[in-house]
Structure formats: C-alpha cells, structure tokens
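Worked Example 4.2. Consider the chain below.
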Amino acid sequence: MLDKSDKNDRRTFLKSTGTAIVAGSVLPMTFSISSGMAAQRAPLKVGLIGCGGRGTGAAAQALKADKDAVLTCMADIFGDYLEESYQSLMKVNPAQVKVADSHKFVGFDAFQKVLESDVDVVILTTPPAFRPSHFEASVNAGKHVFCEKPVAVDAPGVRSVLASAKKAQEKGLSVVSGFTFRYDFAKRALFERINRGDIGEVSTVFTARNGGGLWYKPRQPEWTEMEYQMRNWYYYDWLSGDYIVEMMVHSLDMMSWAFGDKLPLSATGTGGRQSRTEEIYGNIYDHFAIEYDYGNNLKGVHFSRQQKGCSNTNKVEVSGRNGNAVVDIGKRIHATYGENAWAYDGEHNNPYETQHEELFAAIRSGKPMNEGELMGNSTMLAVLGRMVGYSGQTITWEDAMNSNMILGPAPEAYAWDLKWPVPPIAIPGVTKVV
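Applying the procedure from the previous section yields the following structure tokens:
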C-alpha cells in the first residue's frame, strides 16, 4: 500500500522561500525578512533580454514573484517581438511595467544597453546560442541573473558559462536557471527521498519524452537568410543545440538529479530524422536514443522523439536496489515503490513562479544562490547526447567537455547579412563531432 500520510511534505521539507545551490546540490534555506523591512523594501529593477514567448512569461512570473520588482528595460533583436511582449506585459500587470521608449532596445547589441542601465536583475531568454556571451556580460556588469535553460549549445559555450558562474559566486551574485522541475514541490519531495536512499542505491534512470510537431514561421520576401534562421531558431543546431539540448535537457536534468548530480563517464547512442525531413526543419533530428555510463554498471537512458501522429509521454523511472520511483508528468504521478512505498499528496505549486520567488528572496536576504555549475553540467549532458547521437560513437565526458568545436559564428560576427551555412544532416558513423 502506498503511504499517503505524508501530507506535510511542503511544510516539513519544502517550506522555504529560498534555495541555496552549493556545488550543484539543492539545499533548503529559509530567508527571514521582518514586516518592517518588507514595507520599506527598495524596488528591484528588472531587465528582460529576449522578448519571445518564454521571455514574456518569465518576466510576468518575475513581477508576480516580488511586488516591489519593476521591469525597466527590454531588449530583443526583433522590434516586433519586443513590442508584442511589452503589450502583453502591460495587460498582465501595468503597475510594475515601467519601460520608457528610450529603454526599449533592438538589435544584436541591445542586451549590452540593458546591462549599461541601472537594472539589478536580468532575465536571459534569447535562443540558447546567445546565452554564454550574455551571461558573461551580465556577470561582468554585476547583475543578478535568471538564465533560461539550456545555457549553451556546445562545449566551449558550457565552459564559458561555468567560468562566468564561478565569477558570479566570487562577486556575490545570485544565478538561477530555468530548470523548472527543480522548483516543483512534488518533484523536490520525490527526489529528496531518492537521494536519501529510500529506494536504495540508484542503478538505472530511464527518461522518455515523446511529443509531436512544433511551430514554424514561413519565410518572408524581406527576410535575409540570417533573419529566417533566427526566427526559426529551433531548427538549427547552432542556435538551439538541436531539440535534445533545447527541450530534452529537462529530462536529462532529472536523470542527473536522481544520480545526485554525479557526472557520467561516457555516453553512446544514436539518432536521426525520419518524419521531420523537409528543408524547413533546418538540420536537427527528430529522435534520439542515448545511454549514459556512470561506472559500476550504473546507467542513465534517454529516449525521445518529436514526430507527428505518435503516442506521447513524459516520464522518468528510477530503479534502485530496494525499489523504484516514478515521475509521470502527464499523469501527475510522483511515487516510490518497494520497501518505502510513498506517493506525493502535498501542495502543488507553479514552479515557474517559485524559481523567481526564491531568486528575489536570495537577493533581498543578501544570501546569494548560484545554480551556475548545475545548469552548466545539465546542459553538457544534453550536448554530449547530441554528440554521440550525431556521430554514433562512444564519447567520454572528458573528451566532450574539452571539445573545441563551436557550432555557430562568433558573437562579434552577428549581422543581418551574415550568410551562415546550414550544415548537412548528421549521419551516425560518418559525422565527426570532436
């Protein structure tokens, strides 16, 4: 029988307004602000860099998380995206949106203008290719950061993020990533039980995320090739990292979480594109199957596809020596089975809001939280998965992390007339990645 008596998980383990990240681990931390202090809190000025759907949502969630937060700057390479985002945010909470026309910045250098302003916090929600350079510039400018996942598309980008995260820690800056599941109360309760040994030593973690097709923006006559690729960034590996990096990184982050954020020794696998074959889908795959080797016969397995007309799922299954655990997102199951059977029956939250609540609490408490190492390593898990899928070769973590292969142009080369070539579709057994 499943034990559902633990209805106070939220109160006993998760009732904290902040989270400290130390060497990639999640530790509970309680922040205390007196009512007098709260009444006299200074506004936290927020800058949004990347005004697409995710950026607009993140900005709205940030403003909801702290009633004294004010959005004062916005930046995007596309003026229409920025204006649509601004209008949407004005409908949600106009009292906290104070963005003058002079603080709406457009172009490849727009992010720098936000960083030159007096904002306290920046939200980095551009396509993944831009995040390493934007994160580095934000830390250098002394800004607290919310950085959407993934944080890079290749190993040099990940190394840059890890270096910037270390600098952020030295400067006392808070860094929160978009690995939203880490802020979900039910998943926190479940993974806390896994990590403390309720199912015994973890031996295998299986993740699966199968879905259908996504959006596409038809080419317009006035668009250059660069603009076309930028507006359809998801389908170009130099911009998104391929879908395993852009989306499935959530599943791989949970795999890492189950293993206590231990790094794998190597990975092997395959992938390809069977149904998403038209030119409009750039050069990314539509399926991957990857095995991660953690040593001592400990395995992590990831399977995913994005193919229309197929069955869908989004789950994680963790096998231990004394039981197993399951996260089934579609069925809202968070449970363990075996000697310590249990099912989550506590409070459910909106993790997209919680991550901003904890970020602002950390900033205001003067006790910074830093997820930089965690977000870099989880992103690298996905980059490694793409590398072995593209090549068909077994690649060690060390070799992948030390790779100098850069997928896209240098940031200083970005321009609307840049004709960045689309690489051919990778062929396992033929394509070289290191």
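The CA atoms of residues 164 and 426 lie 31 Å apart. The two ends are 50 Å apart (CA to CA). Compare this with Example 4.1 before moving on.
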